[in-house]
Amino acid sequence: MENKFLESSEFYNSKFNNFSTIIIVPIAIMVVLVFFMSLFMEKEVSINTIGIIGNYGGESTAVKHSRGSSLSSTIHEGDKLRAGQIIGWGNKNRPPIKAPISGLVHIDPNGEVSIFTPIQFARKLSCSMYLRQKDLSLVRRNQSIRLTIQQNSDKPIIMNGKLRNISVVPVQSKNGPEYNAIGYVKVNKQNAKRIKYGMNGEISIISKKETYFNYFENKLLDTRY
User: Where are the transmembrane segments (predicted)?
Assistant: First the structure.
């Protein structure tokens, strides 16, 4: 009986030791590795909002017609103009005006004509956004921004750039005071074929980078207090 008891004890001891060696030790090693990695690996802390893309730098107001006059029927939304090309008038008593730059025509409801750089030739696009009052302390000029535009059945368009200006006076919205901010994003030829002026997407303003350890530590403290 004693021999059988000893044999069974040795069997269970060896089985337990094998279990601890195969399962517990690797898990412990993994936990230690993850802990040390969290001390060095960094996570981006960002503020998210909606951004609208527009023309960067090349926009030029060519002319604004007055009440009682109209633009010539030869000039339409989206027309291509060359620098120096004459913009005609329906009222021929008005002197002709030359387009100051080459680009595409945009006519707003008030009759103001703007000329935009064709987007396929653009290398930068402006990006307009609004920031909440509580986020202002984390935002400053020249921070990195990332614009993500989702499109049906296509992979998202991602463009990176910088934040340039933040207004000092807020505008009132249904969400409370908001501050207009302007930045730019860089666009390559492939992305330029898939986007148009006026498209919007999610803007991420990279406010800071911190280690994963500090990130989860702050989250834990925020939860407790």
Answer: 20-40
Domains of the chain: 43-56+121-221 (2.40.30.170), 61-119 (2.40.50)
Q: How far apart are CA 182 and CA 164, in angstroms?
A: 6
Q: Determine the pLDDT at residue 105.
A: 85
Question: In sequence order, what are the beta bridge partners of 10?
Answer: none
Instruction: Answer whether 89's CB lies under 8 Å from 70's CB.
Output: yes
Query: Are the C-beta atoms of 105 and 81 separated by less than 8 Å?
Result: yes
d(CA 76, CA 86): 13
Task: Answer whether residue 135 shows pLDDT above 50.
Answer: yes
d(CA 219, CA 56) in angstroms, rounded, equals 38
- As beta bridge partners, residue 54 has 126
Q: In this predicted model, which residue has the larger pLDDT, 34 or 128? A: 128
Using DSSP, state whether 215 is helix, strand or coil: helix
pLDDT level of residue 6 (50, 70, 90 thresholds): very low
The rounded Cα 139 to chain-centroid distance in angstroms is 14
